[in-house]
Amino acid sequence: MHKKKQFRNFCILCEEPGLTKEHIWADWLRNHIPRTRQHVRHTASLSFGSPDEKSLRVETRKGKIDSPGDPHSRKLKVLCKACNNVWGGGLQDDIKPILIPLLNGDISGLNELDTPLLSAWIALFVAVAEYSDPPTSAITQTQRTYLRQERTAPHGFHIWIGFHDGSEQMVGAYNHFGLTYGPTFVGYAGPIRPNTFPSQSTAFTVGKLFCLCFSSDRQSPPPWASELKRYPMIKSWPQEQGCVLRTPRDMTVSECDHVSRIFVSPLQWRDARPIGGIR
Predict the structure, then answer these.
(1) Model confidence pTM above 0.85
(2) Cβ-proximal residues to 108 (8 Å cutoff; 6+ apart), any chain
């Protein structure tokens, strides 16, 4: 009963009934980001394997939001009216002065006091967007409840931001992975349901802003994620002591693609789908 309540007909934030459709990219962004794309290409992948690759299993299928139209117009029916219009509407209104400069590649006005609200906005995007492919969703109800109550990213969330070079391929780009490390799924043949995976990573763009989020309720970022230090990304949440909130340059499409897959096991990296439809 709890799984049915949590994932089918009840709000993912407050668990109340009466769902409404929520834009994945907030609707107010239409005033700042032209909707020029003709089709959303969305694929979903599941990848399991042992460290020695002897039990590798990969599944790829057409995603839920693969359809005609611009990605910024996509909606998912996951929030109730109160969480969508009242709580979410308030968050969207409050984030505009922080987010609008970032859409244009300007980080000069961002300060430490802004990062909790920015982290909440990114966490909400990820929590909604991962339901475009429910089997790879990993954010727990406890984490979503914390997000609603505290208006900041929950415990277990790690968020980085940077900028891309403005390539058309990066408009409305999105890449999400359900993740597990270790022997959990070696030889697994059972059904994949929401929260089967303990961890997730999501990369997405909004304007020129490139966001990367890793979250888990039981695992830390894997050691190979330290490679992120090679890229012009800053960790905005939890903010590291002495972190300077500026980034030196824009990332290329290839760099954004690599960063979007950086939490995938190196042995499975080539099986992980690229961001923005590139290969």
Answers:
(1) yes
(2) 101, 246
Query: What is the DSSP-derived secondary structure letter of residue 190?
Result: S
Residue 154: both structure tokens together:
């929950």
Here the tokens at position 161 are 């931001």
Query: Is residue 211 within 8 Å of residue 119, measured between CB atoms?
Result: no
Note down pLDDT in tens along the chain; length 279 residues.
344 444 568 999 999 999 998 888 888 888 887 776 655 566 666 655 554 555 555 566 666 666 666 667 678 899 999 999 999 999 999 999 999 999 999 999 998 899 999 999 999 999 999 988 888 889 999 999 999 999 999 999 999 999 999 888 888 888 888 887 755 544 444 455 566 778 899 999 999 999 999 999 877 888 888 899 999 999 999 977 656 667 679 999 999 999 998 988 777 777 677 776 433
